[in-house]
Structures are given as structure tokens and as C-alpha cells.
Amino acid sequence: MEHASKQETAFVGIETSKLLLKAVLLSGGEVLCKVLENDMAGYRWLSSWLQRNDVSVMGLRVCMRVNEPHSEAAASALAGMGMLVCDAEPGRLEAYARGCGLPGGAVRGAVVLAKYCAAARPVPWTPPSPAYVELRQWLRRLQAVRQLRRQEMARLETHFHAGQIALHQLLRQQIACLDTQIRQHESAILAHVRRHPGLSRPPELAGNYPRIARYSVGASLAGGH
Questions:
Q1: Edge-to-edge, what's the strand order for the sheet holding 61-64?
Q2: Which end of the chain has less neighbouring CB within 10 Å, N or C?
Q3: Rounded CA gap, 185 and 176, in Å?
């Protein structure tokens, strides 16, 4: 076990999607399930549901795949409510599932996450700092603008070959505006990294412009968010 505690008698596994959370509670030999919205109202409903089932949220160990899409906001909110949110490390979770004779796809399920939580007692996850969260948002926004530019460039070629001159010229102006936005985002990201030189490199940094990555070469690659 990673972090055993004899006092713990209830465990929760949470499976996330863009709109919903599926929560499974293991308590007193029972397996209870609740589906909630993946927003602040849903997190509050989860807390109320747990309390109605005589489970205190303070110090309750909750297992999630925090790095999965649509998971981090929920993890941060639940940690803020006093729960011990644990990030299920994929390798260990998959090994646990194999040991139970479960198929590979089962590791994403809330029931398996809850049972893994009870068996392994993984170490609580540490929420990232506001500066790290802001950097990830800037990088995601930059990626979105760059993706839009690529799409518009493809349309530009289509209009040119079709002889649609007016559309071609209009699209060139729009691409110029996107180029300006990209430069503004780059400048904001560089300024943010300079203000916070100790930040870890978020995954969104991979594949970005080398001159952005260059300013993060000295950052810690793990922890210290």
C-alpha cells in the first residue's frame, strides 16, 4: 500500500466526462453510485450525497484520473472541500486491474477507481498553483488560435484555386488578425513564465514554438507547481 490508514472506512472513485461525473462510494460493505453534473453545483451535490450516506467529506479519499480531460477542475474543487483527492497513476492502476482479472478498458470506470483507492490508498494529489493553471490556459488558447489559423490557411488555398478573389482577400485579412493574436499570446506567455520562473512545464508546452519552450528549460519537470 502507498499510504495505509486504519481509520479510513469509505472510499470514492470518480469517472469524469465533459458534462458528467460518475461517483462510486464504497462504505460499510455497500457500493453506491451517483451521477452528477461536472460543475460546481454537481460537486456540491456530491458532498451532500456523501453526507446523507453518513460519510464525512473531510479527509475522504477520492480517486480520479486527474490528468484525463475534464478532470482537473473537479479535482481542485473537491480538494478545496477537504477531500483527499488522489491521482490514479495509470501504470499502477492498470497493474491493479490486471491483478483482479479485469480487461484494460475497465481502469477508467468509477467502480475500479474506488476499489483501487481502498486497496492501494494512493498518496493525495497536490492541486497546481494558480500561476500554473493560468499558464496552461494561455497555452491552450494559443493552440486553439494556431489551429484556427491552419484551418483558414487551408481555406485560403481553396478560394485561390477556385478563383474566388474577394473571399481570398478577406481571408488573408483574417489570417493577418490571427497572426497578431498569436504574437500577443506568445508575448503574454513569455511574460508569465518570466514572472514565475519556477513553474513546471505543462504538457501543453510540448510542440509549441521553440522560443516559448526555451524560457522553460530550467523549470522543474515534476512537482513544484
A1: 30-37, 20-27, 10-16, 61-64, 84-87
A2: N
A3: 14
Q: 61, 119, 62: which is closest to 92 by C-alpha?
A: 119
Coil, helix or strand at residue 22:
strand
pLDDT of the chain, 225 residues: tens digit per residue: 444 444 688 999 999 999 999 999 999 889 999 999 999 999 999 999 999 999 999 999 999 999 888 898 999 999 999 999 999 888 888 888 888 887 766 667 899 999 999 999 988 998 888 898 898 889 889 989 999 999 999 998 888 888 898 998 999 999 999 999 998 998 888 888 888 888 877 777 766 556 565 544 444 333 334
User: Which cell numbers hold the place of 207?
Assistant: 510542440
Q: Give Cα separations from 148 to 86, 87, 140, 144, 206 (angstroms).
A: 36, 33, 12, 6, 18
Alpha-carbon 101 to chain mean position: 28
For residue 24, list its beta bridge partners: 13, 33
* DSSP helix/strand/coil, 112: helix
Look at the block and give the residue holding cell 497555452.
139
pTM of the model: 0.69
Q: Please state whether beta strands 10-16 and 61-64 pair in parallel, antiparallel, or not at all (unpaired).
A: parallel
